[in-house]
Amino acid sequence: MLISSSTPKFRVAICGAGIGGLVLAITIGKFAGHDIYIDLYEAHDAITTSGAGISVPRRTAEVMVELGLSEKIPNPSPDYGLRLRKSNAPKGGFEWFHFIFKTLKRGSTMHRKDLVDILEQSIPSSCTVHFNKRLTKYEKHSPGSLVLYFADDSTSTADVLVGADGIHSSVRKTFFETIGPDIVDPSKIRHYGDPSWTGTLVYRSVFPAEKLSKLDPSNVALKDFIIFCGKGKHIVSYPVSQGTQINVAAYASDERKAGTPFEGHWVSDVSLEEAEEAYQDFEPDAKRLLNCFEKPSRWALHVVNELPLFTCDRVALIGDAAHAMTPYCGAGAGQAIEVWHVHSADHANPSLCIKDAFVLGRLLAHSLTTLDNVPVALKAYQDVRLPFTQFVTRESGLTGKMYDFRAPGYYDGIDRGNEREEMEILKEKIIDHWDWQSQGEGSAVAQWVKAERQLQEDSYNGGCENGAS
Known about the structure:
Layout: E1 10-15, H1 19-32, E2 36-41, E3 53-56, H2 58-66, E4 81-86, E5 94-100, E6 108-111, H3 112-120, E7 127-130, E8 135-141, E9 145-150, E10 155-158, E11 160-163, H4 170-177, H5 189-193, E12 195-208, H6 209-215, E13 226-230, E14 233-240, E15 245-253, E16 267-269, H7 272-277, H8 284-291, E17 297-304, E18 311-312, E19 315-317, H9 320-323, H10 350-365, H11 374-403, H12 419-434, H13 444-461
Parallel strand pairs: 1-2, 1-11, 2-7, 4-13, 11-19
Antiparallel strand pairs: 3-6, 4-5, 8-9, 9-10, 12-15, 12-17, 13-14, 14-15, 16-17, 18-19
Helix pairs in contact: 1-3, 1-10, 10-11, 10-13, 11-13
């Protein structure tokens, strides 16, 4: 049982009531009780989400166990694998390889909205949710308090601020605009604050599995997790909602456009013809899959450039605000096969943001953490999570290139007489990239233990410096 004092240790403001913000609030509430007051600010008039199927891998499920929410997560499937196909063959592709993850236990697949509903129902009593509060900036006032400014001209104060406000994070933007030149090179401020287009467009849809079954009863996408691979593009497809729906994300990339401004809306509804157009050279199973699209949308895939730090003073970034990345890493290992979402506080990789939130929440709730040494706790979070998420980001980018046959030095989609040999080499490289998930460093609980050890050492040693190095 938590023993709560009548006066809280400090007040935490969380901007963004997406998956990361909700898990952070729940974690603080569970392990700190009413010793920490939480204000959760959401830009919209309700806690909503967009997106479709998400994977809840085993190590993310460990967090749900720690938070007492595991019984609400669907049971895992008995096996765990996926099929990759070489699909840029109009008359018929072929199965490249079928991989079963022997070192990992199967995670659960569920609809994103179902997960958000579970989290919303678990918001602790120590947390007050404020709707229609879109942060525009924050300022540091003496003696250390933070003043938050919102788009409706209202203001609020906090002792600690956590930006869980997505790829367009106002917290991240202010964070780097106001940081000292001795910590971050001023010429890089915009590079860190603004999202960057990858040159990739994603066409996405969720539709009833029955629709595909009637059109093509033997389609490979009806039961399995499939990645249809082709030159410069690939399609990810897998069943959700107990197999009644199929979630599809079709990626088309142009590396020449990476880093250039995207003209137009990042997200827009498109015609079925546009969604199908880029995949005319794909095999029949893939084309019939796309033909089932309902209300297709097009997403311009943006990322946050690699940041030198996630925290400074009493401000921290989590989830997409800190490391919005391409969604390819773990597209097999179950890290989270996600269609990209660019608004507010929803996250492309819920697994990573859940881990961010859990580690940070445990540190803030720790008995050693006081208002005076909050920066020590935040730096422990940064030192554990920043290197790991950067590793995942790099792995993800390279994995996506391998699915598209455009990874430097590997099979490029052209048969030069030894296609099978080159594809076998590429297959082994892809599997190597999935293997990172089987390493213990991926466990949120293990990372929390590591962060707690650093918090204890730094607290007893009298503090830490927070910088970009």
